[in-house]
UniProtKB/TrEMBL annotation:
InterPro entries: Phage_holin_4_1 (IPR006480). This is Holin family protein. Its main location: membrane. Keywords: Membrane, Transmembrane, Transmembrane helix. The chain crosses the membrane at residues 31-52. It comes from Candidatus Clostridium helianthi.
Amino acid sequence: MDKYAKSGFFTTIAVLGGCLGDVLGGLDVKLKALLICMILDYISGLMVAVIFKNSTKTETGGAQSQAGFKGLAKKICILFLIMGVNLIDQVLNTNGFFRNAAVVGFFANEIISLVENAGLMGLNVPPAINDAIDVLTKKKNKREN
């Protein structure tokens, strides 16, 4: 690959990243945290399935491509929802209120899933983390009822 092709490739990536960041409401600390936790949750889910063969997503507990693709599809759908909620904020001129609430809510779900994966690997999760998850779960259940 010559230097002009490389610069064109990286320019394209930068433009796409900028556009994606814009439609997601900006790459602030909340969105960065969500994206990092989404990646960590996916990788830890793969570890549970491939190494520990203890996945709750498959009958055998091992890895199956269909379960992996479903996980990726769900994470992409989360980003689509954030895009939609960001548009609601723009239409209602609410300065990111709904987008931030959605990002933090999905972030909490990703953290819960990450801790569940750690438990499936046999790690002893510190009580403080379990207590924090209990608080998040109770708040989530109150909103749903």
